[in-house]
Amino acid sequence: MPATATSLHDLVENIIEPSKVISDQYETHQLEKTDGSIIIGRVVSEDAGVYQVMMNAFAPTQLTPIKTSEVKSKKTYPISMMPPALLNTLNPDEVLDLMAYLLSAGNPGDKAFAGK
Predict the structure, then answer these.
(1) Using an 8 Å Cβ cutoff, are 38 and 53 in contact?
(2) Residue 69 C-alpha from the chain's centroid
(3) Using one digit for the tens of pLDDT, what is the confidence trace for 54-93?
(4) Contact 39, 67 (CB under 8 A)
(5) 3-state secondary structure of 89
(6) Spatial separation of the C-alpha atoms in residues 112 and 96, rounded to whole Å
């Protein structure tokens, strides 16, 4: 599906300001445990009375199990796990390559890669 100006705008905005709009697929939660400690992370699953929580976006397979019986409250956390200003680490060519990759869904034959 070709990208529209709006979807390109949204894509860039989401990269620059990841906490402005957070899809429910990626929302982070604040879990207050019954012992008073706070856990912040993305609840990946809940099964058999245990939350599996991703606390580090750079290690998405490293999950922390937390028993639901130990959770006093669970609420949406308003800050994305994606760090802001990631584009600042890239040079202009790398930014263009990233946009082409994202807009083409990784298809190297897509017109987004024309001239590469």
Answers:
(1) no
(2) 27
(3) 999 889 999 999 999 999 999 999 999 988 878 888 999 9
(4) no
(5) helix
(6) 9
Provide φ and ψ at 101, rounded to 5°. -60, -50
The tokens describing 50, both together, are 């245990």
Q: 108, 29, 91, 14: which is closest to 64 by C-alpha? A: 29
Contacts of 84 (CB under 8 A, 6+ apart): 16, 17, 18, 19
Helix (H) or strand (E) holding 60: none
What's the pTM? 0.71
CA trace torsion 19, 20, 26, 29 (10° rounding): 60
Closest to 88 in 3D by CA, of 80, 79, 98: 98
> CA-to-CA distance for 25 and 11, rounded, in angstroms?
16
